Amino acid sequence: MTVASRWPLPDRRTAEQLAHDKEAVRKQVTSLTTPNADDDARVAQEVFVERIQRRQLAAPADHATPFLHFVPRSGTRAVLAVANELVVDAGPDELDGLLPGYAPADRADRSPRRRTRVLRSEGRKNVTELRADAKRLRDEKKIMANVNSIVPLGYVIKGNSYPGSTVAPAPFAAQGAGAPVRVAVIDTGITAEARSDGWDTGVVREGTDPVNVLAPLDRIDWFAGHGTFAAGIVRQIAPDCEVVVYRFTSTDGLGTDEAAADMMIKAAEDANGGRLIINASFGAPAVDGVPPLAMQEAVAHIAAEHPQVLIVASAGNDGKDLPLYPAAFPGVKAVGALNSDLTPANFSNHGSWVHCSTVGVGIVSTFVEGKLPPEDHIGDDVTFGQDPWATWSGTSFTAPQISAAVAALCGENATLTPKAAFDQLVTGRPGVPELGTAVHLLPGTPL
């Protein structure tokens, strides 16, 4: 039996469990969908973003990402940017005095492979001023520059869309040793605690998820567990591949353009020429027509120096034709979301730049212990006990399915490259308008 013949995997939940799960999944889908169509919902999302902003300002310095936010005239979603910072495509000899009032601000673990650098303002700047300064560099000095985009998981902070508790789909069972292949999950990291059910056995923890850093400490932070969930998806579809989980975010699922870029480059280098699929369940839009510059450079660097590497990325949850990056960069495979019946999910971004899609509604995967939501009095409490499983929705959870399927095909054939495996995966399958090829892997939750 080939791995492809096992797809889609069966849904083994009881009717009672499925009815329970549908309630949580409906809330998730509503939260993802309504900001695109409802003024009141857009206001509610703005309030929610401001709440996250206050949490970051109160966070310990080593876990905080203070940010600014604004809504472009062409959009309905808030765009987030690191406070007082720009990303510039400039060499070291160009940085001194490049922009009065700014100085280089390198992270300790900045990749030496990156030319792009961060400039930090010596005084406080609002978003309008940052965008104007970036435009001045582009227009007057012909140096590409932009705000240092925040790269929240799935781009949009999803309001009250948090996971629901469910049961394991099946005991973990390896299929037998296959040919070497690795999936690098660049995300929130994975929980440091080993599970007793075997689903994280052998997963390499290059970055761990602290889970609950911000008050109240008895609750899971926003987006904690996201990397654990993505890794569990990979294990379900490709149980024999190597999974390495990296962390590029601070608390509440907030990463930056440069941090994401550095982890993408690190993952490519860590593979030492072996077959690698990089899973990027995150993204950010272009700002003022300029895509995130550090990630753009990282994708180009990997294509030039590690051409065997395949990057798979989430298309985003805006429900429109809004290119999200890295998904929309040339060479990256963008993945949209479908309902369990393979019809388009209303929240999924779409367009000619989306290569394929799979079920992204009510996906079941591994989660972390604790209690949600992260703050009191904003939703019904959900408690996750030992070895927990959860339901969650969004394009964040379609990309790892495709990454895993590519890895599974590579595991069957030691001569198959990830890029050739992707082509094999999508060949002969039906298409969905503006969502590429439909690939049915996990069952999701029917609504």
TrEMBL record:
One of its GO terms (biological process) is proteolysis. Residues 120-147 form a coiled coil. Keywords: Coiled coil, Hydrolase, Protease, Serine protease. The active site is at D187 (charge relay system), H226 (charge relay system), S396 (charge relay system). Residues 181-420 form the Peptidase S8/S53 domain. Gene3D superfamilies: Peptidase S8/S53 domain. The keyword RNA-binding does not apply. One of its GO terms (molecular function) is serine-type endopeptidase activity. Belongs to the peptidase S8 family. This is Peptidase S8/S53 domain-containing protein.
